[in-house]
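I trust your eye. Have a critical look at both lines of this record:
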Amino acid sequence: MKEATRRGLIFGAAALAAVGVFAGVDHVASSTFVKDEPPLAPDATVEIVEFDDTGRRIGKKQLHKVRKTETEWRNVLTTPQFVVTRKAATEIPYSGELLNEHRAGIFRCADCGTALFDAKTKFESGTGWPSFWAALADENVREKEDFSMGMLRREVKCALCDAHLGHVFTDGPDPTGLRYCMNSAALTFVPQRAA
């Protein structure tokens, strides 16, 4: 066997072993640092704040959590929506339809229609994903620890249907210092109508 071929095999095997070790460490770290959420009761409820399409706050409402089977979600969502919101995937940067949406209006959950973000809080983060410095109502989103990429992050989910929306970081602008980095596929935009 030639020396170059032998070295290639050694380096290839070492790279494959390193990938396997990293995957194992990631799995162990994920299960160690991030606690599994207990399953919700079938009649679980959540309090959210409702908004009309003008962005006017209607008020708080107690609603049953939206629960569907994987097949039911597949039947009502597009493939990109399903992969992002139900499988916690991430869009390719700069590929989302809502990245350059700058009209007045609100962003709702693509899966259940819950009002999530006001266009007034959207800003250009330079990351390639729609970014907001605040949620429309704290009750409408929830955060969960996420260690899936080998680092601890804060996953953002819709409070009503548990759709994966994206992640929140602490490098945003004033007044909150937050950057809600969202996937376009997880959102629908409703342009503001006259009141």
